[in-house]
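Team,

Forwarding the record for the chain on the shared tracking sheet. I've put the sequence and predicted structure together so nobody has to dig through attachments.
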Amino acid sequence: MAKVFSRVHKRESYFFCWCDDPRSTLIFITMLSTFSQFERALIKERQREGIALAKAKGVYKGRKPTLSKDKIVELCKLVSVRANKS
């Protein structure tokens, strides 16, 4: 995140620059990045818990398959004979 910010910072010097010291700007961006990563981890954890509860209730079945079983068998045969992918 800090590397991305420094690239943006070099191109647009007004971005997140409220003071003259670039080190404090870097610390601020690092803190924002840390908090966002932490919040994302909490969201993922809550989502996993919700999915586990829904599975226990029998409500959550997962994603519907995009390929039919016949299509899967056909593709496996093509792979086994090393057919051209296109």
